[in-house]
Design goal:
Largest sheet: 6 strands, parallel
Structural class: alpha/beta
Shape: elongated
């Protein structure tokens, strides 16, 4: 990939997509954007070309990135009327083959099907889900897990490096999504562990913030303890990463595990805690809000005086 500006399409400009797109704009690339919601002011007032459909994005761009919430959203963005596939059929790249890069977190099985349908149009496909949340998206420190062809990955890698730090080609199409599901299992169980620890410490009469600081210096230290445990103590449950989206990812894990004959008992328990939060109106809470499910059962909040 040369250092000259590239024609890049971006479909989906939400909490994660907007800052990711902005990094590409800041690097001097030509962006063609479309989102179903309101365009973020920074992008709306910037140099990106605003399109009226995903089809319009795909007609104009050589590399098309999608960043939407769920599997059905990706399918709609790619294959519905006015979608990316229609734009790909209506246009041809003057140089290298066009590439579709899905950076959403969706079903690995569906991803393989999407990749084949895009490949059949003479277009390359990468699945490249991310981890790191809103903070990672804004700071360009996302972990990016990629599935696809080696040569296509190397071509797109300079763009990934504008959005993230830890960038790994995991394997073929679908393997990036499998890695992301595994990531979400670990994150959910770490949130649960931090929540249980802080609730225990607080109920025992200890200062949860001082406990957190003590644990950050030992083997229990983690990014979850650093970021999400602080949210639990400060009661800041604005997303972030919404519980409803993490539930979606754990559903992918549990559904695939059933098909594979694999037991994931603690993943199932974490999902039940998320469901408890949703029952209390917490679908849009940050996933650190899982602590509230444990607090409901204990009738005690982290930070409350014992």
């Amino acid at each position: 990939m040369t250092n000259s500006p590239l024609k890049i399409g971006f479909v989906g400009l939400g909490i994660m997509g907007a800052p990711m797109c902005q990094h590409l704009i800041n690097a001097g690339h030509n962006l063609f954007v479309f989102t179903l919601g309101k365009l973020p002011d920074e992008i709306a007032n910037g140099p990106a070309t605003k399109c009226t459909s995903a089809k319009g994005v795909a007609e104009r761009a050589d590399i098309i990135i999608t960043m939407v919430p769920d599997t059905h959203n990706v399918e709609e963005a790619l294959f519905a009327e006015g979608g990316v596939a229609e734009g790909l059929k209506a246009s041809k790249s003057e140089g290298a083959r066009k590439v579709v890069v899905d950076m959403s977190s969706i079903s690995p099985v569906a991803t393989k099907g999407f990749a084949k349908r895009i490949n059949d149009l003479g277009v390359d496909y990468l699945d490249a889900p991310v981890s790191g949340g809103e903070v990672g998206a804004k700071n360009a420190t996302l972990s990016i897990m990629v599935g696809g062809d080696d040569a296509v990955f190397e071509r797109i890698k300079p763009l990934f490096q504008l959005m993230g730090k830890n960038i790994t080609l995991v394997g073929g199409n679908g393997d990036g999504q499998t890695a992301k599901v595994a990531n979400q299992i670990i994150v959910a169980l770490n949130i649960e562990a931090a929540a249980e620890a802080l609730l225990f410490a607080s109920r025992a009469g200890a200062d949860p913030e001082r406990v957190r600081q003590a644990l950050l210096g030992g083997f229990a230290s983690s990014k979850i303890l650093e970021v999400h445990a602080e949210r639990m103590i400060k009661r800041t449950f604005d997303p972030g990463f919404r519980i409803a989206l993490h539930q979606k990812d754990l559903n992918l894990a549990l559904s695939a595990a059933k098909d594979l004959g694999v037991a994931l008992p603690n993943t199932a328990n974490a999902q039940q805690l998320f469901s408890t939060c949703v029952a209390h109106g917490g679908a849009a809470w940050d996933h650190s809000g899982m602590v509230r499910a444990l607090e409901f059962m204990a009738n005690f909040e982290v930070g409350q005086k014992a």
